[in-house]
Design a protein that fits this description.
Blueprint lengths: L4 H17 L2 H11 L8 H16 L4 E14 L4 E5 L5 E3 L2 E3 L11 E8 L2 H12 L3 E4 L10 H6 L3 H11 L5 E5 L25 E4 L1 H13 L4 E5 L2 E16 L4 E11 L9 H20 L6 E8 L7 H12 L3 E7 L7 E7 L2 H10 L10 E3 L15 E7 L4 H4 L12 H21 L3
Parallel strand pairs: 5-6, 6-7, 7-8, 11-12, 11-13, 13-16, 14-15
Antiparallel strand pairs: 1-10, 2-3, 2-9, 4-8, 5-9, 10-12, 14-16
Length: about 450
């Protein structure tokens, strides 16, 4: 079915405006330059909340407000140190970073024999006798054969998330995890890990892929070598923070809400440019485009800057909780949290009958490179699914995302202005189609 001429004209105007008059790149520059360290609970996050609210106020959205939420406050006080301790008494320094939510090592650090494993099954096979008192080195790379790098990430990330708990069951004193990236470089990638209060807590760090290769090779030559790392980090008291929300009221169904959002918090290894500054400025841009082009949506379109996606998802849970308490009707939610790279399509999570409709409508977006559709939505909007909301997630090209994900390379210099603007236009066009046609 060919798209209606009216749809084609409006979608063209959305893309024209985004590619010629967008504020995305400018806003992201300000966010990364002025508020680069904005992990939930930090002073940087608090300042980013104030700035984001001001931006939405200045754009003249119908309503702008802050939604309180208590968030965890993990701090990493100083640069981490690590070294391979050679048999001759010398040491080879390697690059590591603390995993998010990890405890510290104490001021003296940890030095112990190290044992390499690829998965949790190898821990079971080795048993406590082989592991107790040692550092466990998880060295399972992301699968390079998977074209979708998010699938490769999903197949490797459990060693980062649960590795400390599993190793501690066998008496390990620390864990070192190969960074979640397909790149071979010297930038360690952080990310959230968790503890189980019934199991001793041990410190956990990520090692760069170059460091992981070196450590693995050295262990082959000398299985009895030792490893040293020191990190000064830990969890402090919870802090009051906020989701930042702005909306344009619907003209026909104001009680029905379409959400577009990203998460404002970011790990402090980089500036959070792709993860998820890009998604934040794209989401704000969607409402700005509607206002600038005089597009009057039928449904209320709400932009949400979620807090604490990286290490707790508190903002997402609080948003859904408040929506449920107020009996709000959320019909559609789209999230941008996969980087500011060139958009290829969308993840769609909901009934097949609706999913097929959306894919048909999106034939209007094929001239703009939107052609791929997956079965997923997004982390921050996921709690809304229980309320019957259909979920979607912008799907940019994934090949370069894990080069920068949670690393010091996630900075403004690695953002392409045009690709960022194409993403904002794709989301705005999708929301236009859903708003116009409805999902019932």
């Amino acid at each position: 079915m060919l798209p209606a001429q009216h749809d084609s004209t409006i979608i063209r105007s959305i893309y024209d405006h985004s590619l010629s008059q967008s504020d995305c790149f400018k806003n992201l520059e300000i966010l990364c330059r002025n508020y680069p360290k904005r992990l939930a609970g930090s002073p940087g996050a608090a300042s980013a909340v104030e700035w984001t609210k001001k931006i939405m106020d200045d754009y003249g959205f119908d309503s702008v407000w802050l939604q309180p939420v208590m968030v965890p406050h993990w701090v990493n006080i100083e640069k981490e140190r690590a070294a391979i301790m050679n048999a001759d008494g010398s040491k080879t320094e390697v690059t590591v970073c603390a995993l998010g939510n990890s405890i510290g090592t104490g001021p003296g650090g940890i030095s112990a024999s190290i044992i390499e494993v690829k998965n949790f099954e190898e821990l079971v096979a080795l048993g406590k006798k082989s592991i107790e008192g040692k550092i466990v080195f998880y060295n399972r790379p992301m699968d390079p054969l998977l074209i979708n790098t998010f699938e490769a990430y999903g197949g490797a990330v459990n060693q980062r998330h649960a590795g400390a708990v599993e190793a501690a069951k066998y008496g390990a004193v620390g864990v070192v995890v190969r960074s979640m990236t397909l790149n071979l470089d010297d930038y360690p990638h952080t990310g959230a890990m968790r503890y189980d209060d019934t199991i001793p807590k041990i410190p956990a760090c990520a090692i760069s892929t170059i460091g992981a290769e070196l450590l693995s090779n050295e262990l082959k030559n000398n299985p009895s070598l030792k490893f040293y790392f020191r990190q000064n980090c830990g969890m402090q008291e919870e802090v009051l923070s906020y989701n930042v929300i702005g909306e344009i009221k619907g003209s026909e169904h104001p009680e029905e809400v379409i959400v577009v959002g990203g998460h404002l918090d970011a790990w402090e290894t980089g500036d959070g440019a792709h993860d998820d500054g890009a998604g934040c400025v794209q989401s704000i841009e969607v409402l700005r485009i509607f206002n600038e082009l005089g597009m009057k949506p039928k449904h209320t379109i709400r932009c949400v800057m979620f807090m604490n996606e990286e290490n707790g998802l508190r903002g997402a849970k609080e948003y859904a909780k408040v929506a449920d308490e107020k009996n709000e009707i959320h019909v559609f939610a789209v999230e941008s949290d996969a980087g500011g790279f060139v958009p290829r399509g969308f993840g769609l999570d909901g009934p097949d009958s609706i999913r097929n409709k959306i894919i048909e409508w999106c034939s209007s977006l094929e001239p703009y490179g939107i052609h791929a559709f997956y079965h997923w939505g997004g982390a921050d909007i996921s709690p809304l699914k229980e309320q019957g909301c259909f979920l979607a997630g912008l799907a940019p090209d994934s090949q370069r995302y894990f080069d920068v994900h949670h690393a010091a390379t996630d900075v403004m210099e690695n953002i392409n202005k045009r690709e960022l603007e194409l993403g904002a236009a794709a989301i705005a066009a999708l929301i236009y189609l859903v708003d116009k046609n409805g999902l019932k």
